[in-house]
Design brief:
By secondary structure, the chain is of the alpha/beta class. It is built from 18 helices and 22 strands.
């Protein structure tokens, strides 16, 4: 996006126009029937963006019924080509309305427009494009089977949509991670009911306009806003007509959803918490390691499930690494999302900031040396009410410290020295999480050797956040269940049946 376009959107972002959200059920926007809701606050300055209605059991029943009817009606009767052509049009319309999605995402999250314009919105569109290509080219197995009478049989596989999919998406990458689920679900013939995070309702709502504009049949894509317990989230995961549940978020919430999914034996796909390590060996290209680790720790203000919170640096380069990462952190510029020079936004909410600050305090109590940061930054008067926090680096914590073991989800990390490769692997894997890792080394042999021992779903070598959407994505241990991406999404979003024909 051009600087001129960003400033054009900036004037809109600073206007007094309200942006109320709405449920999107059966192709229609509605405030629902609960007469409850909440004000949506922009984390940049805590100003009220608009009102969000809270959905209840009635709205969930309506959305699931609409999704079921579309599945058994027009959407279910479409050919793969017809369906994927429509979804390709969805991707094109997101791109056409790029500025609107960018503004909505930045208002909800406070993230710099320079970040969202390069990652969030393009990936939101790409998730539809990529999975339509896969849906048109999937194949199944076929076997010639001998029979006792010698005539033989043919066995072949048929993939059918799983049905109505509950999509519960997080607030850190609202459009990207929602369409990462909606894209394959719809491309493979399912219908969806989306419950976006209560913190970030706008882009899920806006996508409803896109669905109507390109002619997606009513009921295929539905959105119900609300909270978790005793609200839209719980009613959705409990609903007997939901056939599968996909969720990205905290491990504790995933455990609660899994208990609900056990009723009726619904399948789940979870990407959950992480406490991701980076290992920096003495032979690493230090310039690359500092640049990559700065991004992996501080991008999106540390609110990235794949981000790095634990860094293990081989002792000969430890002091230099700490010094240079400190310098990099202190050059980050906090400010309004529309400012092209801003590269660090606020946290998503004041409530989340208090959680992050509680870890900042706890780290000091447990003996951390604060290399930089550790508190709330001084901000201009017009931004002082926002959810700002300093990028923070610690050293000196014991391995059992809370800041070393618990997911913080803020712009912070702990750096610890190590001596041997074996020690590095051991401490990196000494966590109940297993989502991602990064290894920095110029040794090809070490790269392969160490990467294969990382107990994670994805391991980068000399890079971070480099994604091929065809590859398997998910977490190990308490970081998730299942894999999505490429053909791996087939296992969750479809049911495989075998057809046996005796010749």
């Amino acid at each position: 996006m051009t600087v001129q376009a960003i400033h054009k959107r900036a004037s809109l972002a600073q206007s007094n126009a309200r942006r109320d959200a709405a449920h999107f059920i059966n192709g229609t926007f509605t405030a629902g029937s609960t007469n409850r809701g909440w004000d949506n606050h922009c984390p940049v300055d805590n100003s009220v963006i608009g009102f969000v209605p809270e959905g209840g059991k009635v709205e969930i029943d309506q959305a699931v019924s609409a999704a079921r009817a579309a599945l058994e009606g027009p959407w279910g009767r479409m050919s793969v080509v017809e369906r994927t052509d429509l979804l390709g049009a969805v991707a094109d319309e997101i791109t056409r309305r790029f500025d609107e999605f960018l503004e909505a995402e930045s208002l909800d999250t406070g993230k710099p427009m320079s970040l969202a314009s390069h990652i969030d919105i393009p990936r939101g569109a790409a998730n539809f494009k990529m999975f339509t290509d896969i849906a048109k080219t999937i194949s199944t197995e076929c076997f010639q089977t001998p029979t006792v009478d010698g005539t033989g049989a043919i066995n072949y596989g048929v993939r059918r949509p799983k049905g109505v999919i509950a999509v519960i998406s997080p607030w850190n990458l609202p459009l990207l991670l929602m369409t990462w689920k909606v894209g394959p679900a719809l491309a493979l013939g399912n219908t969806v009911v989306v419950k976006p995070s209560e913190e970030t309702p706008l882009t899920a709502t806006l996508l409803g306009e896109v669905m109507n504009k390109v002619g997606i049949p009513k009921g295929v894509y539905n959105v119900v806003h609300g909270f978790g317990p005793n609200s839209a989230g719980e009613f959705l995961t409990q609903h007997p007509d939901v056939n599968g549940i996909t969720f990205t978020g905290e491990t504790r919430t995933g455990e609660a959803i899994m208990r609900q999914a056990a009723l009726g034996l619904r399948q789940v796909s979870f990407e959950l918490g992480g406490k991701n390590p980076a290992i920096v060996f003495a032979d690493a290209d230090l310039d690359k390691a500092i640049e990559g680790t700065t991004r992996s720790v501080f991008s999106n203000t540390g609110q990235v499930c794949l981000g790095t919170e634990r860094i293990y640096v081989q002792r000969p380069i430890f002091d230099e690494f700490v010094c240079r990462l400190k310098q990099a952190a202190e050059t980050l510029r906090l400010g309004r999302p529309e400012d092209p020079n801003t590269n660090l936004g606020p946290l998503v909410s004041l409530e989340h900031r208090e959680k992050v600050l509680s870890f900042y305090r706890k780290a000091v109590e447990e003996g951390a040396t604060v290399i930089t940061g550790g508190s709330i930054p001084e901000m201009p008067e017009d931004l002082a009410a926002g959810a700002w926090v300093q990028p923070t680096i610690w050293t000196g914590l014991p391995d059992h410290a809370a800041a070393v073991n618990e997911e913080i989800f803020g712009p912070c990390c702990h750096i610890r020295p190590f001596d041997t490769e074996e020690e590095a692997v051991s401490v990196a894997n000494s966590t109940r999480y297993g989502l991602a890792a990064a290894i920095w080394t110029e040794s090809l042999s070490r790269a392969h050797r160490v990467a294969s021992r990382m107990e994670v779903g994805i391991c980068w070598v000399n890079s971070w956040f480099l994604r091929d959407l065809r590859t398997a994505f998910g977490g190990s241990k308490t970081s998730g269940i299942g894999r999505e991406g490429g053909v791996h999404s087939l296992e969750f979003y479809t049911e495989l049946s075998n057809v046996c024909i005796k010749l």
